[in-house]
Fold this protein.
Amino acid sequence: MIDETQSQRAPMDPEAMRSAAAEASEFLKSLGNPHRLMILCALNTGERSVGQLAEFLGIRDSTVSQHLALLRRDRIIAGRRDGQVIWYRIASEPARRMMAVLYDSFCAAP
């Protein structure tokens, strides 16, 4: 069943769709790792530091930092410095919406 908003959308031109599909594919590659998904799930509820994320995931700070660097490079997260600590948050609205859907689909209590 198609909802009303889908039926009212204008068809996308093939070249624009190709470009959007390439962008979506890169976005999904960024999310396509269990550690990065868990990082984003944790950030979905608020800012976290590297140490907090490492403890949450049960992995080394350096491993978390590598994943954060990739997510920063892809502009999915951003950080703000507070003294010696960098607090990370989700900066991408598409990522925020995607994480809400994934959380509701896979993580929420039944």
Observations:
- The radius of gyration is 16 Å.
- The first strand starts at residue 77 and ends at 82.
